[in-house]
């Protein structure tokens, strides 16, 4: 038996780290116990003839001894057996999609190294997964065979989802996709697309190009297998324009190179997709939009931005770049929806994990826009909206960024003071606002101006509390290093003092629960929502509101963490219920063991951003998550969290 998905993931993680990795960190990444990690390492080493591939150390953890051999083992491993039911369901789905005549249950059970009964249960789980995910596909049992039935377009879209989902960081590496196709030459199709689109001056962007490349590659593969799309549900005449000419040329060139014949319906559908991916070269002004038919999008966008201001306290209404960008994007979403030109956003999970507040506002925008217009905005499109809001946040913070107020005391004279101030402004103009130079006779004036710091070239004594930083009048490289260390220490002190003051408003002992056992995310949500309701923080139907948010986009962030909450700030009081599970559960596409359930009072909505800022560095660190999960008491959890937020580990 070869490597299973979990063992492959373990090796790939060690390849990525290149050095020693603690067992508990690997356990968090894989969502298993340290004992299972030891078993997997032992199994992997048993596959290597000459010695061990992974070196073990009680002190240091695990280390890949031979990188080349590890990469070879990954390449050579053709087995797709799996230890997890959800992973086996993924394997079964892939086989069904890429199999022409269905798959035999007995053969499948043997290949997955499970019993026939287990295999049948996995197939039932797959049926539920397809239904819950909204795919218009169903499984049919014929004797010992399983067949996937449904529209050809649905199957192709699902194939693209699976392929892109596995590509992850290598999404723009064309060679990554070759292994999925036996009859379609992906690299050749890519060359044709780039050439034709460039010659025609037609811009669909990198993600549009990637989606089109994969769709056409899947189409070539399916046509060669004898599968074609069903009758088109749109008028051919409506798109017999530039896009049809481009699609015809692309298909003709591929036909010449790959011995395939595109039926006319397939060409029409590809032209349909191309028009849905088109990017506008120039954006109109806000005033221009108001005077055009596009004013519909403008009015709705302005209304929803006002709702965001009311709900989150961020005023984007005057940001013309954002308003126009959102209008044009929503217009494209509507066009794509009309044409069925679904575009897969490969960065959604990373955006959710790294920029949760931006993603949250994007989810809210999508929900409100859908409520007003009836236009469905899916998770992929929400990810694209987050790009717009991310840039808007940067512009907003640059405008509102507060500098530290600084006064300079330099008795060496006017010229020396000017030189010192000039150097400080050169290095720290974005951090410090210098209100002037003061002499010994003017120290009383400092009290009136209340600077954050007093930078002095000589020792001074004040009769009121103030932060004095001593430097030399020359402010050379050594002074600069010392000054930056002092600033860093002061900032860290402020952060450490304020961290639990902020988090303490959210995380409460009465809402901390460890050692929990649940079967799925809904059970977890029901439990934590009830505890919040029981303490008077939320309405009785809070679990339903949280599930409504989950349907828009799962709140799991990877690394075993989820942050479920309602779409709107509708809590009676601000609190966070914390749940630590004995074993992880599947939550969307990720396993989850540590849950922070938010309940945010409208008047305290801006604290949500602060809390996200504190959590982001922790979400990306498996070792920190492992320590939090191992917390058995509220006091231990609190101590670890404060330490991590202050940047000390």
UniProtKB/TrEMBL annotation:
GO terms for biological process: phosphoenolpyruvate-dependent sugar phosphotransferase system; regulation of DNA-templated transcription. Pfam families: HTH_11 (PF08279), Mga (PF05043), PRD (PF00874), PTS_EIIA_2 (PF00359). Residues 180-284, 292-399 form the PRD domain. Gene3D superfamilies: 3.40.50.2300, Mannitol-specific EII, Chain A, PRD domain, Winged helix-like DNA-binding domain superfamily/Winged helix DNA-binding domain. Keywords: Activator, Repeat, Transcription, Transcription regulation, Transferase. This is Lichenan operon transcriptional antiterminator. Residues 403-495 form the PTS EIIB type-2 domain. It comes from the Bacteria. GO terms for molecular function: protein-N(PI)-phosphohistidine-sugar phosphotransferase activity.
